[in-house]
Amino acid sequence: MSEPAAIKLSVLDVAPVWRGSSQAQALRDTLQLAPKVEGLGYHRYWVAEHHNTLSIASSSPPVLAAEIANATSTMRVGSGGVLLPNHPTLVVAEQFGMLEVLHPGRIDLGLGRAPGTDPLTALVLRRPTGGGGDFRRQIAELEGYFSENGGDGDPQAQVVAVPAPGHRPDMWVLGSSPASAALAAELGMPYAFAHHIAPQNAVRSLNLYRDEFRPSAHLERPYAIVASSVIVADTEERARRLAGPLAVTSLQLRTTGTAGPMLPPEEAAVYPFTPLERQVIGEGAGRHLVGAPETVGRAVHDLLASTRADELMALTTVHDPADRLRSYELLTELVPLAAPSLAGGAEE
Questions:
Q1: Is 171 in contact with 189 (CB distance < 8 Å)?
Q2: Which residue intervals define the domain Luciferase-like in the entry (predicted)?
């Protein structure tokens, strides 16, 4: 197997909550992990937005990103992503403009259009239902707020998102479908594809993004991240055991739409799966890259070769912080790292 070309490695984190632990501990685990992966050479660290999900503590990306930026010094930090239809664009611009002022050249604003929650919670969030047209409009509003010249129309022409003007973070379109890829290409924005959500759409979406990309003032050529669920351990048996809790939670989310705190590995190992549930788990196995280094190395090589992504972002949901860090260590040995840099984002 030939080695993949040097690319950037990054981290996606949801601050997983474990049974017998707490949401507060999940957030502390994130803040302890971030400087350690920075020391391993990881390029960026993103946190996701979820609501009313007891297995995930990352409900507020700007707050958590601020703490991660304070705990690190070289990695880019940001959202993977802010689910834009849940929020007034003025508030998002103020939050991320402030982050960019406090941590210049290090902040990413990844934007998604999904609710990140169940229908009832989405209603409580008062989420609009306009779909893609609203998402496009909200991105345009953000561009206006971050511009030193303001927007062309309401509300940007009348309202200043202090301190956003002139302090634009790198803005990304996030998605898991050709529709999101087409939007990123049309707007000339970098694109992050969620392979851990829809692996079947990865190649088509990333090819479409590159083929239809239009250069913009912020990005001259296409730049794509592929985000994937990755668990690497020293042996196949160990990796499968570490991935057991993820299988249970994934099953719960797919069958009931909700999940409680994640089970520790010893509890997941004796979970009473029915034959039908095992079939469901098997059908979703392509979402995760799990195994010993040789196994995951082949899977990573195939993923990068097929998608031609510029960057691999690993979501590693593992119970023990030491095992989690070990997975990130092993991944750096499987993928030659491009030299990280503080300045710049997508084009570096």
A1: yes
A2: 11-306
Alpha-carbon gap, residue 14 to 47, rounded angstroms = 6
DSSP string, 71-133: H-SSSEEEEEEEEGGGS-HHHHHHHHHHHHHHSTT-EEEEEE-S-SS-HHHHHHTT----THH
Structure tokens at 85: 């239809």
**pLDDT over 60 at 183, yes or no:** yes
Cβ proximity of 220 and 347 under 8 Å: yes
CATH architecture for the domain at 8-334: Alpha-Beta Barrel (3.20)
Burial label for 67, CB within 10 Å (0-12, 13-18, 19+), is middle
0.85 exceeded by pTM: yes
User: Which of 157, 329, 347 lies closest to 230, judged by CA?
Assistant: 329
Q: What pLDDT does residue 343 have?
A: 40
Distance between CA atoms of 285 and 246, rounded to whole angstroms? Answer: 11
Residue 261: pLDDT above 60?
A: yes
Backbone angles phi, psi at 233, to 5 degrees: -135, 170
Gyration radius of the chain over CA positions:
19
Domain regions of the chain by residue span: 8-334
- Token pair for 107: 């902040």
String of DSSP letters for 120-139: HHHHHTT----THHHHHHHH
Q: How far is CA 314 from the centre of its chain?
A: 8
Q: How confident is the model over 25-80, as pLDDT tens digits? A: 999 999 999 999 999 999 999 999 999 889 999 999 999 999 999 999 999 999 99
How, if at all, do strands 107-112 and 76-83 pair? Answer: parallel
